[in-house]
Amino acid sequence: MRLDGIVVVLLMLLPFAFPKIPNILTFIYWNVISLAYLFYIAIKRWEFV
Amino acid sequence: MFELPLILLIYIVIGTAIAFYSRRARSQEEFFIANRSLGSVVSALTYAATTYSAFMMVGLVGLTYATGVGALGFELLYLVGTLFLLSYYGPKIWKFAKDYKVVSPAEFLKFRYGIETAKLASVICLIALIPYTSAQLIGVALLLETVGIEFFYGIVIAAFLIASWAFIGGLRGVALTDAFQGVIMLTAAFTIVFYVLNTVDLSKVEKLGEMLYVPNRFWSYERFASLVVPWFFFALTNPQVFQRLFIVKDERSLKRMVIYFGTFGFLYTLLVVVLGLSLKILTVEGSFPLITDRDKVTPELLTRVPQLLSIFVSLSILMAAVTTANSIILSLSSMVSRDLVSEKGFLIGRMSVVLLTMFVAFFASQRFQYIVELSVLSSTILLCQLPLIIGFFHWKRGGKISGISTLIAGFTTSITIAILFPKFVLGSVVTVIVASAVYILASLVEKR
Fold first, then answer.
1. Per-residue b or e along B25-49, where b marks 16 or more CB atoms closer than 10 Å to that residue's CB
2. SS (H, E, C) B45-70
3. Are B215 and A16 an interchain contact pair (Cβ–Cβ within 8 Å)?
4. Within the 194-213 window of chain B, which residues sit less than 8 Å (CB to CB) from chain A?
5. How far apart, in whole angstroms, are the C-alpha atoms of residue B132 and residue B122?
6. CB proximity B394 to A under 8 Å
7. What is the mean pLDDT of residues B343-364?
8. B44, B151, B207, B362: most buried, per Cβ within 10 A?
9. Domain residue spans in chain B?
10. Could you report the predicted ipTM of this complex, rounded to two decimals?
């Protein structure tokens, strides 16, 4: 198993620990992490075995 | 509104022409998986159009409107989960399916857990995906109601579109019509979001209060987990997307398919959530009525935008529903053909496209619960397959008995919880735990 799946899930759950302040931080954070992970799987080498 | 029937007619003619153009099936492999010959762009668009259903523009807009930014987290966690699963398991599944000439999703399980397990998995998929597919038809019918088409006739129109293109063109027809519709879905989402954004003062976003963070009154830890778990594993447990891994022609196309799908998914999710939040800001500001039934948010919006835009978006939602539903129906038909009756040709599989669609249309006409709950129940039931699929790659033990007992335990658990404890939100988590425990125990005692 690869660790990147666990890492990205933990990062996506992090907003549950953010301070409860009504701003767009959580919105932006989730978008940035998702986009970064998409970029990561695009540049990494895939194993076809 | 007389333009919609005309545009519907043009849409039906174009889709039917594409389906006829694609009609070249002489074998099961061609009819159900296009002979494993599709390129990355068409594969990505059919994957996206199959995955993203009427739930997005109807259900998720409403969910965001009613509950806030937690809906974005739920949907994007699904997306990154899918990207992880597709980048890790996708290549293995694609190669295995190619080497062993696997056509139906349940057939994959046959090689490790026996034909009985594959048959049982097919039956469970049939049972589970009826509500999910019905949700697509309900979404369309609710939408068409707003333009004056009665609910029942909306169901009939959607059912006709679902059955006809899959029946005529098989997977190649479905994939090409999906690609065409996927482009329109994304374009329509962009258009309506930019239209709404022109009327919203985004500096007022902080007025949304607790809707901008998690946890809040709706997005508790338990509810977030209950929605995320079945969707996170969607790519492995839902046959219509699992089977999409068989259709690409080579390794390079597979990787590109996943990346293009991820890009589509990210943009579409972002647009839908921005739309839901924008409408909520408008409600807070008094420019958009307060909608208490969240599935009615998009239909209400469509009565307030220019007629042409309303038609365009309505059509895109219809397309989203059709692309998801016909892919499911075709995938289920492949399981009927390959796993349940083991026919040599694909006549029964083809006839199943029509019969299953009729059954789904009947179920939709009964209008059960909210769209989100219906969809999630399907994915929860399908979670019983998860230990078998993960175990296929990571657990050497286990055969027929493990396969059957895992499916029965997981399926029974999910149904029991849904019926006896409908307010219990962690049914999906319990289903995975029970199915995994049974799988491990059964495989430890089973002789291979």
1. beebbbbbbbbbebebebbbbbbbb
2. HHHHHHHCCHHHHHHHHHHHHHHCCH
3. yes
4. 205-206, 208-213
5. 15
6. yes
7. 93
8. B44
9. 3-115+122-371
10. 0.97
Helix B70-88 to helix B221-232 angle (10° resolution) is 30
Residue by residue, pLDDT tens for chain A (49 residues) are 578 999 999 999 999 999 999 999 999 999 999 999 999 999 998 987 6
Q: How far is A14 from chain B (nearest CA, A)?
A: 10
- pLDDT (average), residues B286-300: 92
Q: Residue A43: enclosing H or E segment and its boundaries?
A: helix A25-43
Count of Cβ atoms closer than 10 Å to residue B96 Cβ:
16
From residue A25, alpha-carbon distances to A18, A21, B179, B402 in Å are 9, 9, 34, 46
User: Are residues B76 and A5, on separate chains, in Cβ contact within 8 Å?
Assistant: no
- The answer to whether residue B343 neighbours chain A at the CB level (below 8 Å) is no
Tokens 């075709």 belong to B330
Cβ–Cβ below 8 Å for B259 and A41: yes
E-state strands within B147-245: none
Mention the CATH class of domain B3-115+122-371: mainly alpha
Give B123's contacts (C-beta < 8 A, 6+ positions apart).
B340
**Selected residue with higher pLDDT from B77 and B366:** B77
B324 contacts: CB under 8 Å, gap ≥ 6: B49, B50, B51, B52, B53, B54, B133, B136, B240
Gap between the Cα atoms of B113 and B399, Å rounded = 4
Cα separation, B422 vs B403, in Å, equals 27
Q: A10 to chain B, minimum CA–CA distance in Å?
A: 10
Distance from CA of B274 to the nearest CA of A (A): 10
Does residue B214 sit at the A interface (CB-CB below 8 Å)?
yes
- Residue among B245, B248, B39, B92 nearest A48 (CA): B92
| Crossing angle of the two packed helices B40-51 and B151-197, in degrees rounded to 10 | 110
Answer for the pair B414, B427: CB distance below 8 angstroms, yes or no. yes
> Cα(A38)–Cα(B314) distance, rounded to whole angstroms?
30
